[in-house]
Amino acid sequence: MSIFICRVCGHIEFGVAPERCPVCGASKKSFDQKDSIFIESEEKSKEAAVKHIPAITVNKECGLIPGQGCVDVIVRIGETLHPMEAAHFIQWIDCYVDDHYVSRVYLTPGVYAAGCFHLKTTGSKVRIVENCNIHGYWQAEANL
Asked: Which of 10, 40, 85, 103 has a CA 20 to 30 Å removed from the CA of 135?
């Protein structure tokens, strides 16, 4: 699958570059194709996987909006929780349903490397992509 990265905000699109970045609004010209972005991160730092691969929990009944068909996708970055220090932190976590972008959670040092997405979207799989300021892009998938 082709992977396109926005040079402005780091957003990833799967398949084709969009006319406008859904995160920052940059034009299609701002996207570069980089199909090996996840492989490069892993090869750069094989020991980093334990602190970077997103752990995904899907709760079919949303705790925030019960009874409405909402699904909670809870994300923790790393089997060993990723540090969130000024020099080394997770910048953001993106959520995709069936490879279509849904939402982004921004993180800063001083918070935990975790987030939650409340989805009313239906689909078959969720993909979580995160970006570490030192170790790059990492991803994981789960069934919805």
From this structure: 103
Task: Please give the Cα distance from 18 to 25 (Å, whole number).
Answer: 10
DSSP 8-state class, residue 82: P
* DSSP assignment letter at 19: S
Burial 20-56 (b: 16+ CB within 10 A, else e): ebbbeebeeebbeeeeebbeebbeeeeebeebbbbeb
> Which CATH code of 3.30.70.20, 2.60.40.770, 2.40.10.10, 2.20.28.10 fits the domain covering 1-35?
2.20.28.10
The reported pTM is 0.94
Mean pLDDT confidence for 56-62:
91
What are φ and ψ of residue 13, in 5° steps? -120, 140
- State residue 31's pLDDT score: 98
Bridge partners, 18 (sequence order): none
